[in-house]
UniProtKB/TrEMBL annotation:
Family: Belongs to the CobH/CbiC family.
Protein origin, superkingdom: Bacteria
Name used for this protein in its record: Cobalt-precorrin-8 methylmutase
Residues that span the membrane, as ranges: none
Residue span(s) of domain Cobalamin biosynthesis precorrin-8X methylmutase CobH/CbiC: 7-197
Organism: Hyella patelloides LEGE 07179
EC code: 5.4.99.60
Record InterPro entries: Cbl_synth_CobH/CbiC, CobH/CbiC_sf
GO biological process, one term: cobalamin biosynthetic process
Length: 202
């Protein structure tokens, strides 16, 4: 039984027809196609970057019920349904861990630092806050023992966004990055949902 709603499958068929030939492997394409379905933006066929065996590492982690840490609640809400239909991974929104921001930091960044201390081996999903992604990269640079199974770097916007993605790219950590300024919570959630389907059906 497919985890996808019939309308989603119809949309995928339309996307397949419009894209035609491409250079992505089946798993990369499944993720890109779901993001395109979510955004109606075909640029994502070329904007997603998959590095350091991020997909295969994430599939194993999800199947084993590893926690998923999101930066904001919107990403958490966007993956909750499919998590419930697949592996029931704990989902933690970093922003919920910080009622007040630490001096000089955002609430999301503050919450992310707390999540890192509690869930260092989680799948990390950043769809909104570049400050949280930068903080996570700084934590990883300070140690080399713990390697998360996947970091999704998909913050959107203009301030510190490209810098945060560059910081992630410099780390030899399993990762999926949205290149440039595009991204956002719906995109980050779509990437996770595609991974959940691949992990369940694979």
């Amino acid at each position: 039984m497919s985890l996808n709603h019939p309308i989603v499958e119809q949309s995928f068929a339309i996307i397949d027809r419009e894209i035609g030939k491409h250079n992505l492997n089946p798993s990369e394409y499944a993720i890109s196609r779901r993001v395109i379905h979510t955004t109606a933006d075909f640029d994502y066929l070329n904007l997603l970057e998959f590095k350091h065996n991020g997909i295969s590492s994430a599939l194993v982690a999800l199947q084993n019920g590893i926690p998923i840490v999101t930066d904001v609640t919107m990403v958490k809400q966007g993956i909750k349904t499919l998590v419930g239909k697949t592996f029931n991974n704990p989902i933690i929104a970093a922003i919920d861990f910080a009622d007040v921001a630490l001096p000089g930091k955002t609430r999301t960044e503050t919450g992310l630092l707390k999540c890192w201390s509690k869930y260092p081996d989680a799948v990390y999903v950043i769809g909104n806050a570049p400050t949280a992604l930068i903080a996570l990269c700084e934590c990883l640079k300070k140690q080399n023992k713990i390697i998360p199974p996947l970091i999704i770097g998909a913050p959107v916007g203009f301030v510190s966004v490209i810098e945060s993605k560059q910081a992630l790219k410099q780390l030899e950590i399993p990762q999926i990055i949205v290149k440039g300024r595009k991204g956002g919570s719906p995109v980050a959630a779509a990437i996770v949902n595609a991974l959940l389907v691949l992990a369940k059906e694979g």
